[in-house]
Amino acid sequence: MTITRRRALLAGAALSVSLIATACGSPGDGGQGAAPAQSTSATDQEAALNAGGTITVWAWEPTLKQVVTGFQAKYPKVKVNLVNAGTGDDQYTALQNAIKAGSGVPDVAQIEYYALPQFALSKSVTDLTPFGADKLEGTFTPGPWNSVRSGTGIYGLPMDSGPMALFYNKDVFDKHDIKVPETWEEYIEAARKLHKADPKAYITSDTGDAGFTTSMIWQAGGKPYQVDGTKVAIDFADEGTRKFTAAWQQLISEKLLAPINGWSDEWYKGLGDGTIATLVIGAWMPANFESGVKAASGKWRVAPMPQWESGGKATSENGGSSLAVPEASANKALAYAFMKYAGVDEGVQTRLDAGAFPATTAHLNAAEFKDKKFPYFGDQQVNQVLAEAAAQVVPGWSYLPYQVYANSVFNDSVGKAYISSTTLDDGLKAWQDASVKYGQEQGFSVQ
Amino acid sequence: MTATTRGPLVIRHRRPSPRRRRSVTLTVLTSIMLIYTLLPLAWLAINASKTQEGLLNSFGLWFDDDFALFSNIATAFSYDGGIFTRWLLNTLLYVVAGAGGATLLATIGGYGLAKFDFPGKTAVFAVVIGAVAVPGTALAVPTFLMFSSLGLTNTPWAVIIPSLVSPFGLYLMWTFAVDAVPREILESARMDGAREFQIFFRISLPLLAPGIVTVLLFTVVATWNNYFLPLIMLKDPGWYPLTLGLSAWNAQATTAGGEAIFNLVITGSLLTIVPLIVAFLLLQRYWQSGLAAGSVKE
């Protein structure tokens, strides 16, 4: 418990740093950004690989360790320094501080899709078009590919993806004779039935999670963020958003959501003992189930994400990361070559074997991948469901160019809806206001 | 001390025996405080003996069926290529260099301020008192920017150098030195022709020992538990102290594909506090006398 609390404190403290860093380092922090595009054809990358050198990679994703081993075996002259500089926010803070300070910047950094626009807009990361990234269109599924593009530039290579699906505890569903929901309406019904049958059990847990909420709005067809360069519009009152809030408000008001913070020890416990009966989450989740929720092995199954219209197939992306090259990197050709190895070439298979979920269409559609049986999920071929979801991501979504900040203040506004009489709509309105205000302070033109 | 001259009998009558001085209220309050303090420790010790699954499936304040403390300790030291040992050694380095250096500087500075008169002493006093009031966290970001322009971030220096400054330690040594080293001794030493450094090392230092141990304990605890400063300064897990390392292990559970190792986080935490507890038990009599130092003015 103390650890959780300490992390919360830390998040607040680290945030203040990132604010300072962004405030000083936003657009026009020229110098490095103005560097001329290096000539970097495929032959140049090949030459860089053969010439060798050392690159530093900041990433927390665990399977990259094996990728680095494979890469160094293939290109013995290249040395890759893999550094875990923190998970998520911690790493972005560190990265922004390093960029601001102009020293200690890595050659490759893992950046989640939601955070990438922030680094792309400030030109803290390199446009990869001159390296041939534009030729990779079609290599990746639409969700992650759209997430790494901003304007005409391509600012990262997708590493994994998280099309959403419904993970459910079949034991719990069978025990209370509940049908696996196909629509959100049925989902709410299931929530009521389950909690009535067993007051200790909840359909899912949610105490306010920015990533989850935005992904849900995304699936419902909401487009709260409209971004055109530094012109930003935020509107949490569109039809899609309303669809989501109307449904989710019922779950909150009727106290059908377990008050358990995601990713806490209690959450892992709840997933194991049936307290949390479903998770609507990204396709990367199986690996976490297998390593973190061993107690419920054989009980969980995967189904398509519940729909807003009966018979629909819409999904959205939840989480997932890209690899990007900070503008200050001194060895961009080598950095790009590593990213391509990890995200497009042999590295993908290495990561798949270790349980990651790919962003590349070829791997998603490979028979070997789709037909793999998961003993954890009662021998279900879960990738069938997940690969299908990857192809059904609703197009047209964008995140704010300062989503990292916005997500960090989500709990101050929307979080209230989960613990007080504030409604979800009011909470989102307050979040919108806070995001608008911050955007204006940062020099964006926000509506 | 006068007791021996007056005879023991009188004393026995005058002083109530220790037994009678017991207050029920105080005993109750102290017991509550004791439980309050020991409960988290007990929780830590109990849960360090559980496996990752056992941790999630058993009652928090009692043992699980299989006792996995030793396998947890073994795994903690071998996990991820034995990085825990590296973190332990880093912490020791920061403590020895940082806390040791801070104590040395505080002792020399406090002694100098207490025993020498020089212009601007009042100003120094004001600055030191002011510095005691500023929390280190508030200075962390400016310190980071300064160190990064010096090119020292992501090196052990970035943790050690800021740890060398301990305004509270300086203040404590100052007040302690005022009473602990009588001016008369210094004067007679000077009369006998001793030089100032000779006086400091051969006469004053032994007299200051209880104060030094107190400051040392303070700075050791502060450096051992230091979290925010290394968090900002260090990127490379190879230089992490235990606090940051454990936090990184804990964060592992919050990412796609990450392995939840709460059992190692808890076992690691237990291993982290053991050296501090040992240090306290060994040095506690100095600590007590140090705390009382300067509280009575003669």
Automatic annotation (TrEMBL), chain A:
Pfam families in the record: SBP_bac_1
Coiled-coil stretches: none
Gene3D superfamilies recorded: Periplasmic binding protein-like II
Record keyword Cell inner membrane present: no
Family annotation (SUPFAM superfamilies): Periplasmic binding protein-like II
Keywords of the record: Signal, Transport
Protein's UniProt keywords contain Transport: yes
One GO term (biological process): transmembrane transport
Signal sequence, renumbered to the chain: 1-23
Stated family: Belongs to the bacterial solute-binding protein 1 family.
Protein name per the record: Carbohydrate ABC transporter substrate-binding protein (CUT1 family)
TrEMBL record, chain B:
Membrane-spanning parts: 24-46, 87-111, 123-145, 157-178, 199-224, 260-283
A GO BP annotation: transmembrane transport
Localisation per UniProt entry: Cell membrane
Domain ABC transmembrane type-1: residue ranges: 88-283
Membrane topology field: Multi-pass membrane protein
Keyword tags: Cell membrane, Membrane, Transmembrane, Transmembrane helix, Transport
Record InterPro entries: MetI-like, MetI-like_sf
GO cellular component, one term: plasma membrane
Protein name: Carbohydrate ABC transporter membrane protein 2 (CUT1 family)
Organism: Nonomuraea fuscirosea
